[in-house]
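Many introductory courses stop at the sequence. We go one step further.
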Amino acid sequence: MTTMIKNKINSWFFEYSTPRILVVKSRHIGVMHRLYQIIVILYILWYVILRRGHQDTDTVLSSVTTKVKGIALTNTTELGEQIWDVADYIIPPQEDGSFFLMTNMIITPNQTQSKCAEYPTLKSICTSDMNCTKGLTYAKGNGVQTGRCVHYSDSVKTCEVLGWCPVEKKAEPPNPALLADAENFTIFIKNNIRFTKFNFNKRNILPNMSSSYLANCVFHRKMDPNCPIFRIKDICDETQEDFQTMAVHGGVMAVHIQWDCDLDKGLCAPQYSFRRLNKKDPESSETPVHNLRFAKYYKNSDGKDTRTLIKGYGIRFDVLVYGEVDYFCDWRAQCLMKSYKEKKFKYLDEHELISN
């Protein structure tokens, strides 16, 4: 033990180390040296710069959840004064990366399973029972024909049907839209992504976003472009669409979330953009429409099943996520540089130098 300590002390005090450069005068080695340098330079210019071969890529895997907030007040003949919250105007309550925001409606209240006159169409208008076929149904009808021709109004007779009565009337939706206040509703979009190849996960709620920030922020293209909470009217404005016009007949909007990540530089943040998907065809006079029907069921005072049928017009929002990641991982360049280093450098101790 004592001898080992003495040797270390002597080595520290009495030995001196300095780097040496070994210059080898050899045409063969010199040519090989320059050839390796040229190969490396050409490789960098061609593969790394032109082909971006130094970066591997992966496409994004994504999941999206949305949460809408807002209150609206309507006052209609059918329903009277009514408050609408998220449980009323988001139909259905949850979809995968999409949701339907109801902005307008046609209401048919107090329907029961009974017999009544069909709505007047070319297929339902009649003058006698001979024009009606018992058991007949058709796609746009409201029930099964009973075989009788009855009065729909004082001047019009139609085939009687067994179905939910009274039948829905064919009419244009209210203008302005009943839920005009929906322009001030907000959407909170939560997006989680993963690049599997690099085991990299990220979400659009960035690390610097506190709960107090999320409680107050609203997306703004210039002032707050990273906030994941969006006002409905602002989305429409971004697409140069008027919300109040679209709210009457409905429409389809896309929220694009673009993830272009460079893991070498530590850059990975979402970019938001918006687009209307069902724009009006300039060569057609037809107005784009988006609607669906749903019903609210209950029992009346007689215990009979009753429903309120709602033909809801609204805006469908589809959240579409795209992304690609770049990351430096070219093992071929690393292997070439390692081989070059092994060829170029040789480390010698003092005994080898003396013997040479």
